[in-house]
Design a protein that fits this description.
Layout (H helix, E strand, L loop, with lengths): L4 H6 L12 E2 L14 E5 L6 E6 L3 E7 L4 E8 L6 E3 L25 E2 L19 E2 L5 E6 L5 E9 L2 E3 L2 E2 L3 E9 L4 E4 L7 H5 L3 E5 L11 E4 L9 E4 L21 E6 L2 E2 L17 E3 L6 E3 L1 H15 L16 E3 L3 H8 L1 E6 L4 E6 L4 E5 L2 E4 L1 E3 L8 E3 L7 E6 L4 E6 L8
Parallel strand pairs: 5-14, 6-13, 20-28, 21-27
Antiparallel strand pairs: 1-2, 1-16, 2-3, 3-4, 4-5, 7-10, 8-9, 9-10, 10-13, 11-12, 15-16, 15-29, 17-30, 18-19, 18-23, 22-26, 23-24, 25-26, 29-30
């Protein structure tokens, strides 16, 4: 949908063309219940800077927003469009929870609310899960829901991202959440017109997520060219015409032409049609940095579970189901033995490309103390008919999103301890 002149004036280019930009984000990988580590982000331009970064089953970057900058924790999410930050005003300062990283609009000279009379505040704008509306103060109100049931709502605003004195964004559109079910904001990285990369005109980014069982839990994230890309295997993304009307299709997602799943030497008897969107969009296979687990439609999940029962059925935790989505789970004491019996798991794509997505015990993820599960859930429990490749199956590999060439690159790597 074409942008109005007003919207175009609000967006524009993120960085000055004179800057050769490469952002590298060290990552850590561990369960949500584990203590989070303090990390750093380095920007390689004519000037340099370091910023805090954390990872807890999601990529979480501390982004400098506002004038003067306030450091805001935001999840890097390739599965969603709208970027938003946790907001509060002066009246709420005393009640701020210490675990939530709040942005104070009153402290920023570049902060601006989006008024109700802008194009984006019209009720039929399709970029939000609920229609935008006009609040009592004549500011544009939004609501954004996610597949896992979490939500954020507040006002649409414009604000600057300031990485250094020589690297400052123009005002970008984002959400200023006054109510949410999360304790961090979101950096929307899909291909939607309002996403961070779309507004910033960024054509390539990549990350390397370390495994969760090692002693060194740091990896890297690049915004821009990746020096390792010559060794990547590339899979062409599926794209869809804007005119296509498919109720179950997410046209802004990174959709992959997945063909099958192999466990050890056994290629599972799953029809390739299961991974391809039908006329309604059901069966779409997406790669998503913001999802911890991988989710499969029922036919694919059932075939994977049948193979797990064949390989390690007696070791499964009887009657256990994690978060009502995953039931291939084990006591931690037998996890190593389970991993040895399962072996490797591969995802298969077009042109014969196979990607190793887990090996041995690395296929399992700790969901609570003493319990590990194969990192796959049933997508129908999320009220979706899609396949979603989560970050649990993106460990120890480079994943590159090359928008210019409409492809996703994969490169085997030992992600722990990588240096920019």
């Amino acid at each position: 949908m074409p942008l109005s002149l007003l919207l175009l004036s609000l967006l524009g280019l993120l960085f000055s063309p004179s800057n050769s930009l490469s952002l590298s984000f060290p990552l850590t990988s561990h369960s949500v219940s584990s203590q989070e580590a303090s990390l750093s982000l380095s920007i390689k331009t004519k000037s340099h800077g370091k910023f805090p970064f954390q990872y807890s089953n999601a990529l979480v970057v501390s982004v400098p927003i506002g004038s003067p900058p306030q450091q805001m924790d935001m999840v890097v999410d390739t599965g969603s469009q709208l970027s938003w930050i946790q907001c509060h005003g002066k009246v709420r300062r005393k009640s701020v929870k210490p675990m939530i990283n709040w942005f104070d609009p009153y402290l920023s000279s570049s902060f601006s609310f989006l008024p109700c009379n802008t194009t984006l505040c019209r009720p039929r704008i399709p970029d939000f899960t609920l229609p935008t509306s006009c609040d009592p103060t004549r500011h544009c109100h939004y609501s954004y829901f996610y597949a896992d049931g979490t939500l954020a709502e507040g006002n649409l605003v414009t604000e600057k991202f300031t990485f250094s004195n020589s690297l400052t964004t123009r005002s970008l559109l984002l959400g200023c959440a006054t109510a949410s079910t999360q304790n961090r904001g979101m950096l929307g990285m899909n291909t939607g017109r309002l996403s961070f990369i779309s507004q910033a005109k960024i054509s390539k980014f990549s990350y390397c997520v370390p495994d969760r069982t090692g002693s060194d839990l740091t990896g890297l994230f690049y915004l821009g060219d990746n020096p390792n890309s010559a060794k990547f295997k590339y899979v062409n993304m599926l794209t869809f015409p804007k005119s296509r009307l498919s109720p179950n299709l997410d046209k802004s997602a990174y959709t992959l032409p997945m063909k099958g799943i192999r466990i050890g030497n056994n290629k599972l008897n799953i029809s390739p049609a299961v991974f391809k969107p039908d006329p309604s969009g059901a069966g779409q296979t997406m790669i998503d940095s913001g999802s911890d687990l991988t989710y499969l439609v029922d036919e694919a999940y059932s075939k994977v579970r049948e193979e797990m029962v064949r390989l390690v059925g007696p070791m499964m935790k009887k009657g256990y189901e994690y978060a009502a989505v995953a039931d291939m789970c084990f006591d931690g004491a037998v996890a190593a033995a389970v991993g040895r019996r399962i072996g490797d798991m591969w995802f298969q794509f077009e042109n014969g490309v196979e990607i190793l997505v887990g090996k041995g015990e690395g296929l399992l993820t700790e969901v609570e103390e003493g319990v590990k599960c194969v990192g796959i859930g049933r997508s129908d429990r999320l009220v979706t008919e899609s396949n979603i490749i989560g970050n649990v199956h993106q460990q120890n590999m480079w994943v590159e999103y090359d928008l210019s060439n409409k492809r996703i690159g994969f490169g085997v790597a030992k992600c722990s301890g990588l240096k920019a």
